[in-house]
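Lab notebook, bench 4. We co-purified these components, and the gel suggests they stay together. Before we commit to crystallization screens, I want a quick structural picture of the whole thing.
Request: model the full complex, all chains together.
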Amino acid sequence: MTVAEHIETGPETARAAKPLSAVRLLSWALTAVIVTLCVVPFLLVFVISFGRKIEGAAWVWDFTLANYQRFFVGALWPDDVTFLYLQQLGFSFWYAVIASLLAVLTALPFTLLLSRLSRRAQAAWLVFILSSLSLSEVFIVMGWDILLSNNSGLPALFKSTGLTQWLKDTGWFQVLRDWGLASPRNVKFKTSQFATILTMSYLVWPYAVILLYPALSRLDRSQSEAARTMGAGGWCVARTVILPAIRLPLFGTTLLLFVFLLGTYVAVTVFAAPAQHSTAVAIYSNIRGANLNAPFGAAQAVILLMSAGVCLALGHRINTWAEAR
Amino acid sequence: MRVVGSLYMAFCALLLALPIAVVCGAALNGGRSMFFPPRDPTLARFGEFFVSEPVWTQALGNSVIVAVGAASLAVLLAWPLAYLLWSTGSKLSRTLAALGSMPFAVPPIVFGVGLGFFWSFLGGLGALWAGVVSHAVLLMALPMVTISIGLQSIDRAHLDAAATMGATESVTFRTVILPQTIPYTISGFFFVLVLSFNEFIVMFFVSASGYATVTLQIFNSLRNGYTPTMAVAAITFIAVSVLVFSAVARWGDLPRLMGADQSNS
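Here is the predicted assembly.
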């Protein structure tokens, strides 16, 4: 017995002493790395947003709220007020809201159908979805740009197939012109909000599928089947059984995609008219582009991040509130 | 109902493939400009992209260096994080994991701006190694998730069995934990590889025009109009993605990695 105890306690004490310090060392090292690489960059943006630009030079550390004031009411306030930057933020929100809603609503039925396929078929579809998900924004914009540009792509196709003429004959052409989707001669998709939102929606569509997939593939299918046995139609089942069960992931996905889309840069620069550019474009032109006003760019980035945070918090609030009812 | 469903899936697939197909078709153009359908089809553009035009071969080289470097570094960073989270579950480990996924969760342009400032202070702005580190940090969340899924799939009974038979912690780690999580680690590695390959906006800020990856080069050429060589780049990238994800699906459990329920296999 004493021998056994000896054998047992020997390694036990040694193990207790050594891994503990190793784990602690690891924790410290990791904390240092994570804080430096993941937190410091964000802190820098925040701190620099209070800095001051010097005309004809770079910028200096400072503590001024001028950048924020400029964002909300313009640099010349109170003599002159401009809401240009707020308007840009508005466009960021507008594009992101519509595009994320569009993506989630069209991805939902697709993902539901996907989750009912065989395991093999699901894996094959997932390869396709993931490949298109990882495809760079620049390639996607390039593809849609070719498709939507006026000389090649859809407008040319419209013209050569006589669809343009048909639209003119039936009077729809005037409607398209009113929406800004046609020039006097032919349909025109560049530059338009339609093209911007379409591309942005396309950009996050695979994300929507991937984010909805876990929830939908875990749906208890026996519930839908029970409802069907009791005589509920397909639409009725979707509304009363499936939708309540996935409300949370549906909402969460829309919110995540929305936040992701707030920072879209390439699609907006290419497809949106200059007057309808978003905050992300303004951030770039201040930090790396023509304006070279890093503190103001940083302030815009902070505001973009804050708005994203507010939306996430609000979403969380609404959710808990809906849950409680 | 079933027919409508299949039709809808086919429609989605078609729409998803449409711009990709257009870009691929445009790569075959013989001339200097993009037409669809292609005129005077040729494969000469492939030679330009991979061999003869230094602008593109250099960009491709940089892309590969950044992607492979970032994927390796991201896995190295994510492993201890995921392990700490799994083995201790402490408050610190949860905070670290949350902070580690933050760059991936916020709009990438904000993190890009932050890294731009960060590297300009450290002198890494416009250096390739800074690009590698930036992508590793941005995408670290992915291997962290896949490795965590792998660690959770380990049967605790195996660990108990190993401990009963007197295996030390390092032996258990080497013989039980590591082999069972390797597929998940590799999946994480490849996710970072592919996403880093295609990432644009963060690289845009940290490269500071010091070097160009393929996506940067494409964006730079965007203003001068498209050339079919750019479409070759797109084809290459799509091919890499399809290959990588097929490999993950072939040797790993892709539906499970994506969070599907295990029971309906």
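The first strand of chain A starts at residue 52 and ends at 53. Worth comparing against the SEC data before the next meeting. The domain at 84-149+190-324 of chain A is CATH 1.10.3720.10 (MetI-like fold).
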